[in-house]
Amino acid sequence: MNCTKRLMLAMLLWSMPLLCGCASAQPDRRTAAEAAGPARVEYTVRLDQPQTQMVDISMIVRGWEGGALEFHLPVWRPGRYVVLDLAGGVRDVRATGARGGSLAVEKLQKASWKIAEPGRGDIRIDYRIYANSLADRTRHVDSTHAFLSGTAVFMYIHELRGAPAEVRIEAPEGWRTATGLEPAGENRFRAADYDVLVDSPLEIGRHDLIEFEVDGVPHEIAIWGAGDYKRERLKEDFARIVEQTALFFGDMPYTRYVFLLHLTPRAGGGTEHLNSTIMQTSPGVFDAPGTYRNFLGLVSHEFFHTWNVKQLRPAGIKPYDYQRENYTDLLWIAEGTTTYYEHIILTRAGLMEPKTYFEAACSTIRDELARPGGAVQSVADSSFDAWIKFGRPSPDAVNSTVSFYSKGELVNLVLDMEIRRTTGNRVSLDTVMVELYRRFPLDGPGYTRRDVLMTLADLTGRDYREFFDRYISGTDALPLEESLLTAGLRLEREQKKRPEGSGEESREPAYTGLKLKDADGFAVVTAVLSDGPAYGAGMNADDQIVALNGRRLRAGDLDARLKKVRPGEKVRLTFLRADELREIEFEAGEKSPAGWTLKHVKEPTEEQRAVYESWLGQAWPGAEKAENDNGRRPGHEDLDDEPRPGPVKEGDPGK
Prior knowledge:
The structure is a single chain. It is built from 19 helices and 29 strands. By secondary structure, the chain is of the alpha+beta class. A hairpin with a 2-residue loop joins strand 23 (514-519) and strand 24 (522-528).
């Protein structure tokens, strides 16, 4: 089947739920826009008293043709797969007709309102929003700024979702606006439709603005909050990330890009948008190489989303339904593939050394292999159940779930190495992602699992259904050691060293399966891992542990105390449950050391070296000095010392 026929089939399959009535009741955007005729929507954002954390919104519907008018606020925001209480902060909803008279507004559902008899002409809807939600990157207003993510503040009308929209900002003197929206005059911005409007957050205030260009395309970094950052360094490092990611996909799907950055204590995370991103981090992140490198990983992740998710989207989240969950089993691509590439892009850009990338990968491997949920939930199921599980974790999550981000990262690593191995490095996951991006543009249908399998088969000549059944829809253990050897790397368990001169035996703490935190003077159980003895003995989340073997226990002391307990010895826990003093005794368990290391093999084959260099964009370290030691088989021996590799020069393999 050729590409055109596959595309036609995908479009037919995508439209079938609409024909059978199984999809959202939301009307088709193109049909709605045509029905609306010349109608459009204009919004005014008023920040008269930002110190109260209130924002006033006016929504004027121009040229309404009559009939009942229903309007809605979304119940979630793209990029976070959980239903939010966005309508909970809305108050004072009122409406005015074309002749200036008040119109009756009826609330239909938690985030939907109706004007039964609006009349014809311009209809104005006013409402106020309490904006004190910073951590979830939806809306936050105070005396220094206003951050407004569109789905959290702008209501919409189904019939006009495809109509043009304009926004006017009324803010305190001296405040300015950073946004991906197109300027339309002083303090005015325009969007082609509602989807573009709400995918372009607004940062309004006295932020620092850093500007730079990449290949003639303007980019901005708008920073709210104080931090010891170096403007020139940010410009240089952000530009290298932009260059490397644009090189990966072969284009820039925007004419201007805006990085919004919040520097505030205990903040972290980011959300991708159409031609912008909002990122949050601690003001001290720039003080040390490690924390700054982690921050650049966030930048790399969110910017990679400009292509993967904002352009290339799974069918289940395209088009967005703003009133309910949007299901897909492909978040392991939308988010997991992005997580996989965030550090690879940094390495290719020369902003992270391979050794540091290996440490980050080993940390992910350690965490995922220690998670009992890996034998219970697949990454496909994790993707589909994001709305009820990942977005709302429970104390049992570690036993029953995996993350489509971190487990998705490892699945993508194995898939990449498998593609490279079976095609002689002719094809890689890079090739697959670029081809999916080409086949499924933003103005077409979203891709399905079948589309991914077909693309893989077309590029590699191989059927990947078994791989998907085992590692993506299934929970088989990932062949990480074998996969990494494809790139000339050995994955090994970390060896614990005996403390020098102490005469003490070095061993791991005895294993209980308990995770604790200190609260209210107790070591409180936050989770009980199902592979530990405390689980079968009956310890529960929220139990308040008073003592271990008769001595008071604090959460931070658990490992040190358990190092004095041998596997098989009795552990006695005294604890409170519902204010009742209880005691449980069980035998301590044993668990293999969780640490892992990645090392270059001593004598790589030509294939291993080629994979390594094209994968990381770095030269193989010290290859010219490798010697054949007693005829041992190349590709399976370690280098004792790893020289720091430099970046690959232009024209070398892998660039």
